[in-house]
Amino acid sequence: MNKEQMVVNAIRILSAEAVQKAKSGHPGMPMGAAAMAYAVWGREMIHNPADPKFINRDRFVLSSGHGSMLIYSLLHLFGYGLTIDDLKAFRQFGSKTPGHPEYKHTVGVETTTGPLGQGIANAVGMAMAEKHLAAKFNREGFNVVDHYTYCILGDGCMMEGISHEACSLAGTLKLNKLIALYDDNEISIEGNTDIAFREDVPARFRAYGWNVIDVKNGNCFEEVDAAIRLAKDSDKPSLIVCHTAIGYGSPKAGQASVHGEPLGEENLEATKKNLGWPEGEPFAVPACVYEQTGEAARRGAEAQKEWNELFAKYAKKYPELKKEWDVWFSDELPVDLLNDKDFWAFEGKSATRNSSGVVLNRLAERVPNLFGGSADLAPSNKSNMKGKGDFSAETPEGNNIHFGVREHAMAAICNGIRLHGGLRPYCATFFVFSDYMKNAMRMSAIMGLNVPYILTHDSIGVGEDGPTHQPIEQLAGLRAMPGLTVFRPADSKEVAAGWVAAMTGDAPVALVLTRQDLPLYEKSGADALKGGYVLSDCEGTPDVLLMASGSEVEQCMGAQELLKAEGVKARVISMPSFELFEAQSDEYKESVMPSNVRARVAVEAAATFGWHKYVGLDGAVIGLDRFGASAPYKLLFQEFGFTAENVAATAKKVIG
After folding, report:
1. Residue 626 burial (CB < 10 Å; 0-12/13-18/19+)?
2. Which of 132, 164, 410, 509 could form a disulfide with 403 if both were Cys (CB 3.0 to 4.6 A apart)?
């Protein structure tokens, strides 16, 4: 057995042993895909374990994240710092080898995967980033951005709708630096894929505009390698269909039970004999395996050295581009938005979706690497950057992305763009359709990616489109998500604050915006970054606190005037973001919402869930715990009690 085959078998054995020790996991996929993975990592992929963040490295995404021991075995064998002890701690609390790969947690993992289909959509985003950055920075003889994105995905990813969305777009954009390897083992948890999945996948991908290559024996790394080389010559994204056997080498090969169960000690021993693996202690790897993988590491180090030399010449010849490069690849913004007066300048009434469009274009003038767009709604959600061109197969230098009606893939693609580095992605749709993209938003939050989500048409203010398009429960649902900042601004200056939050920090931000016009308030502004603040106060201790987000702040301001005429002192608190408010000190929160003022009213044209922690047992929430209706929005606000008069009347009730 040659050294390369020994590496392939080491991946299989280490994966099976780790799952067996944990008594939990998925051995079948890593064992079946080991040859594919070696062809990528050992023969084709440019990567340097000594510098895992080398900018021009090839990217690798394991979309079939349940097979995490595949990537952990690779990271160990190829020198990324995962030890045998780390492999032995697979799926244990605090280990570097959790049940599914986690970005920022394990060195060498490019993205968190597990929810099927997310990974391939991330890979599409990475390939889009590579294409756009290459168009921006490359010059003749200086291809400083020139790398591939590899992705291994399985039948489950192929079934998920997000893969259809993402791969259709990839074909349209001709992302020829994207190479997907399909682990076609025809087995899912419930049995043979024939029970639910009989489509002609190669035909589907050809229809998308992909180059499709068939590898009859996906267990032969040389055949897979030959296919990868063919793929590199294509002007389209490539799908390499690798016919494999789940649990290859074990007595349970080809069986559904090997998908998510340990092999068992007897089957593990039989597997070692079948593969000709040397007798010995568990997790013992022959020295020749490390010698072979070390060759790939040396090639990667040499490739990085050559790139460094090329980039030094590039910087000397193109100093202005080098300055731009430094800005684009920095985590710091090139402008101080908080002290930029023009950034905060607005006049008169405006729908916050329109204000967001203004702010976005101000940002585009100051932050050149913004790269984003909408799910076919840009004219309505004001997400287009003027004069920045469209990103397409023919014009990859453009900054505006047309995602098409693909909300789920859009969000996951933006995660991939952000993970790649060098670009600041954003995406946009109607707020009600955040339901379609929620899992990808959740992945943004898990990974700590500050992706801005522009979510317009935020309430019954949508009006005539009716309950199907009027968000009710979405605010509460997104607020329940750890790591996501939900920001619903009350006017244009609060919109600017929301965008500052979205462009800084390490959390995704959902900018929830109105269709209808809202007033501009004198005392609004950067204080909105505290999540909640006193927008309009009274003299002395207030009798009642009136709090709201977004458009309903207007009703609170009106109620304050009505109450003042009756001698009732009310404080109006704008609450654009629960999450940012909760991050403030106890002293600050007490200054905004004094604990001795128990009469409180919260107002929001959405589900009441979540507001009770601010109003307490003695307060009231004016909300909407039912779906909306089709009618002009002003009539709906009147019908459902979102009026200054109702807020004032409710305030008097809670005061008693």
Report:
1. exposed
2. 410
- Decide if 407 is catalytic: yes
Nearest-angstrom CA–CA distance, 214 and 207? 16
What gap in Å lies between CA 165 and CA 144, rounded to an integer? 30
User: Do residues 109 and 284 touch, judged by C-beta distance below 8 A?
Assistant: no
Decide: 17 and 72 in contact? Cβ < 8 Å: no
Catalytic residue (choose from 407, 552, 554, 579): 407
Buried b / exposed e across 546-577, counting CB within 10 Å, b at 16+?
Answer: bbbbbbbbbbbbbbbebbeeeebbbbbbbbbb
The 8-class DSSP code of residue 139 comes to B
CA distances from 496 to 175, 352, 360, 500, 527 (A): 34, 10, 9, 6, 11
CA distances from 570 to 522, 533, 637 (A): 17, 14, 22
Query: Terminus-to-terminus CA distance in the chain, angstroms?
Result: 86
Contacts with 260 (C-beta within 8 Å, 6 or more apart), sequence order: 25, 26, 28, 66, 189
Give per-residue pLDDT as tens, 68-118: 999 999 999 999 999 999 999 999 999 999 999 999 999 999 999 999 999
Query: Looking up tokens 């980033």, which residue turns up?
Result: 129
In angstroms, rounded to a whole number, what is the distance separating the alpha carbons of residues 508 and 556? 29
Is pTM beyond 0.70? Reply is: yes
pLDDT (tens digit, 9 = 90+) per residue, 609-624?
A: 999 999 999 999 999 9
